[in-house]
Design goal:
The complex is a heterodimer of chains A (about 400) and B (about 375). With about 400 residues, chain A is α+β, with helices and mostly antiparallel strands. Chain A is about 45% helix and about 15% strand. Chain A folds into three domains: about 5-90, Butyryl-Coa Dehydrogenase, subunit A, domain 1, CATH 1.10.540.10; about 125-235, Butyryl-CoA Dehydrogenase, subunit A, domain 2; about 250-390, Butyryl-CoA Dehydrogenase, subunit A, domain 3. Chain A contains twelve helices and ten strands. Chain A has a four-stranded mixed beta sheet. In chain A, strands 2-3-7-6 form a four-stranded antiparallel beta sheet, with no helix packed on it. A two-stranded antiparallel sheet of chain A has the order 9-10. In chain A, strand 6 and strand 7 form a beta hairpin. Chain A starts with 6 loop residues before the first helix and ends with a helix. Chain B has helices spanning about 5-25, 25-35, 40-50, 70-80, 85-100, 105-115, 230-265, 275-305, 310-340, 350-360, 365-375, and strands at about 120-125, 140-145, 145-155, 165-170, 180-185, 195-200, 205-215, 220, 265, 270. In chain B, a hairpin with a 2-residue loop joins strand 9 (about 265) and strand 10 (about 270). In chain B, helix 1 packs parallel to helix 4, helix 4 packs across helix 7 and helix 7 runs parallel beside helix 9. Classes of the chains: A alpha+beta (about 400), B alpha+beta (about 375). The interface of A and B includes residues 1, 4, 72, 309 and 387 of A.
Chain lengths: ~400, ~375
């Protein structure tokens, strides 16, 4: 047993770290560090920088731009990005639609979509959840009627992250409402957001941010060539994606960065004339989160080591990383908000008055991060997955 | 990065596991616990034969020179089997000799330990000291060519069966001063020592010891006079890492037993594991295990290899915080999920509960290690 990275892994980490220090634009890392809103341009700009370097899609097959990094290298890269404070890589095209196309797409679909995903020429979003289908995804109702050379789509999707930026959406739609098992009548369809009948309506979250949307489909004509895999086999595609999670589900790097910031911040805040970081009550809460994060980092590495050895995709382990990782992210934002005390209350300036934007970002961020234990399969669903897949209950 | 045990580590851990499966089952263990001595000489002999007693002893003295990491798998198996023999007490006490003893002390003791002919205990805790290792009121005064020890030590785990006891005593300074603590090798039969023996909640034997004018020769001193604290901290961190590994093994076995119970116990016509309220609790127990295991790896890896004492303390304390948390969480839940049966002597989970509860406080509880982590 050796908990330390090998010399090659350290060299790789240093290479990534050095490259990020030189190539991550300061205005972007400042925005990320201060939890400021990231525009579509910000996201695309960073994507293109990585694409140019050949680091945007490590896990893709080489002929489409993959670079052959192993699971540990991919993990190191993503954690270093998190620690450095890069804008997030929007996963919908890169690590959701693309793996599906690699596995199930026709040659024509691959040629048409993959290079544009690689270069961020198309911005993708995901059409899974519906108002009546959250955790119970297979109950979805959005209907696609087969009219020979095209489908006609009617229905509604919800929680469509960055749908307002998107050029394309990949959707699960019902193509057979008479199937004996409801999973069997679902298909995986790619829809151009500019098609007549597609409407995007923002859903503003409680922090005032616009991340998610509702997407409405009204008699939307989708060419038959946009069907991925077979009709009514969309559930197979969706399940494949579940096993194709990214390496950094635990978001260790991001949390390490936030923890460092919390410590720094808590040492500047005074309580009874002493730095808040020396207040035992506060410090103990912080220490517990730090220790949980240390443990999660090692747990994550243990899982990676297993994956590297077995060559198997991650199973229910990913669910564990999601549960713990999101709990840690939430605790950190909560402590950050608590650290600023009563100054957590100011939210937005009125009439352009002077304003501390950073302290004002802490409570909204706390509010925003409540989403993490809900999205991407709520933590309760993750527990169901572990219970079924690894415990056999 | 690599989290597998090497071949030797795995072989040894497996052989302990096999031994426990075959000869140290719940019923056999019960008999041992109920016996006069509270441990088995036969089992002790077997541990020696298997090479476990020699594993942590330096190669110059007939041992295999294993570090905490080499001990990890063994300790996990010991935790799984709830082994009551004085393995940790002897191993840990012998570390004082291996790390700071004179050649004569090493020659006299270590080969005997390897052969299973010598058991040891560590007398450190005193009433009112809580977990402060610098709190040593027991006195050792220079007299003639040696020292005379006076004072009281509490909860000396496996003290009653020990042949030699490592005793911390003050050769100078006030009760909680960092300097002035010395370590002595004391024969268990030395005159002036009285032991009050008892069984602990987790079915080990322990004792309180009163020292009244106990004379020891000058060569009973381990290491340098007055500079024992750093060594005590080092060895207690080593012991803490081992007990973290032991906890992980115990947690694993009690999780396995609980999962099995959820699958077999029926109520309302179905296995109780069909209920989501219980499924999610079981999942959280498994997550606790994984997180505790990760931190036990960290503690065992760093207890020997980390050269900076401040960093070693920080990491070992972090591990003990997380492992103690898992001890509490898993032990409590294992009883709850077993229902009334979990409360009884008849189920192994209630015995594991007791060991885990005591491990959570052994060598410092969560509060103590949180303080040490941040300090």
């Amino acid at each position: 047993m050796d908990l330390n990275y090998s010399n090659e892994e350290i060299a790789f980490r240093d290479e990534v770290r050095g490259w990020l220090a030189k190539n991550l634009p300061a205005d972007l890392s400042d925005k990320v560090g201060d939890h400021e809103h990231l525009s579509k341009d910000d996201l695309v700009r960073w994507h293109k920088i990585l694409a140019k370097q050949g680091w945007i899609a490590p896990s893709w097959p080489k002929e489409w731009g993959g670079n052959g990094w192993n699971v540990v290298q991919r993990y190191i890269f993503e954690e270093e990005c998190g620690y450095a404070g890069t804008p997030p890589l929007v996963p919908f095209g890169l690590s959701m639609c693309a793996p599906v196309l690699h596995k199930f797409g026709t040659e024509a679909q691959k040629k048409r979509f993959l290079p544009r995903i690689y270069n961020a020429d198309d911005f993708w979003c995901q059409g899974y959840s519906e108002p009546g289908s959250g955790s119970d995804l297979a109950s979805l109702k959005t209907k696609a009627e087969n009219r020979g050379d095209h489908y006609v789509v009617n229905g509604q999707k919800i929680w469509t992250t960055l749908g307002h930026y998107a050029d394309w959406i990949f959707c699960l739609v019902r193509t057979d409402s008479g199937a004996s098992k409801r999973q069997e009548g679902i298909s995986f369809l790619l829809i151009d957001m500019k098609t007549p009948g597609v409407t995007v309506r923002p859903l503003i979250l409680m922090d005032g941010g616009h991340e998610v949307n509702e997407v409405f489909f009204e008699d939307v004509k989708v060419p038959a060539e946009n069907l991925v895999y077979e009709e009514n086999k969309g559930w197979t595609v969706a399940k494949y994606l579940l096993g194709h999670e990214r390496m950094n589900t635990g978001r260790i790097g991001v949390s390490k960065r936030e923890l460092a910031k919390l410590k720094e911040f808590a040492s500047t805040q005074a309580k009874d004339g002493k730095p808040l970081i020396d207040d035992v009550r506060f410090r103990d809460k912080m220490s517990r989160v730090e220790i949980e994060l240390m443990a999660l980092e090692i747990t994550n590495l243990r899982f990676l080591d297993q994956m590297r050895r077995s060559g198997q995709p991650p199973g229910a382990d990913v669910s564990m990383l999601k549960i713990k990782g999101t709990e840690i992210q939430q605790s950190l934002t909560e402590l950050m908000m608590q650290a600023v005390g009563p100054m957590a209350q100011p939210f937005k300036p009125v009439n352009g008055g002077e304003f501390d934007a950073f302290t004002a970002s802490l409570a909204p961020r706390y509010a925003n991060m409540r989403k993490t234990t809900i999205y991407a399969g709520s933590n309760e669903i993750q527990r169901n997955i572990i219970s079924k897949m690894s415990l056999g209950l | 990065m690599n989290f597998d045990y090497n071949e030797e580590q795995q072989l040894l851990a497996d052989s302990v596991k096999r031994f426990i499966g075959k000869d140290y089952g719940f019923e056999e263990r019960k008999k041992i616990v109920a016996s006069d001595k509270g441990y088995s000489e036969d089992v002790w002999g077997t541990l020696a034969e298997m090479g476990l007693l020699g594993l942590p002893v330096p190669t110059d003295h007939d041992g295999f020179g294993g570090g905490a990491l080499d001990m990890m798998g063994v300790m996990e198996s010991i935790g799984e089997g709830l082994v009551v023999e004085p393995f940790l007490a002897t191993t840990m006490s012998a570390q004082f000799v291996s790390r700071a003893g004179s050649d004569a002390q090493k020659k006299a003791l270590l080969p005997q330990i390897v052969e299973g002919k010598l058991k040891m205990a560590f007398a450190q805790t005193e009433k009112g000291a809580r977990y402060n290792l610098a709190h040593v009121a027991t006195q050792a005064k220079k007299s003639g060519g040696g020292y005379v020890i006076d004072g009281e030590k509490a909860v000396v785990i496996h003290g009653p069966c020990a042949d030699k006891i490592v005793v911390s005593a003050r050769t100078s300074g006030g009760t909680t001063d960092a300097r002035g603590i010395s370590l002595f090798l004391v024969d268990a039969k030395a005159s002036g020592m009285t032991m009050k023996a008892y069984r602990t909640l987790d079915e080990l034997r322990a004792c309180d010891i009163t020292f009244k004018g106990v004379s020891v020769p000058a060569d009973a001193l381990i290491g340098k006079e007055g500079e024992g604290l750093a060594l005590i901290e080092e060895v207690v961190d080593y012991g803490t890492a081992l007990v973290c590994a032991e906890a992980v093994g115990a947690i694993k076995s009690t999780n396995d037993a609980t999962l099995e119970y959820l699958k077999t116990r029926k109520q309302f016509g179905v296995p109780i594991g069909a209920f989501q309220a219980l499924q999610h609790r079981m999942v959280d127990m498994v997550i606790s295990y994984e997180q505790a295991k990760s931190m036990a790896c960290l503690a065992c890896d760093k207890a020997d290899s980390e050269k900076d004492p401040a960093e070693r303390k920080r990491l070992v304390s972090a591990a003990k915080v997380r492992v103690s948390e898992a001890c509490r969480h898993v032990s409590q839940e294992s009883i709850q999920l077993h229902g009334g049966m979990g409360m009884t002597e008849e189920m192994k989970v209630s015995h594991t509960f007791r060991r885990l509860t005591m491990i959570a406080q052994q060598f410092g509880d969560i509060d103590h290690h949180l303080e040490r982590f941040a300090g």
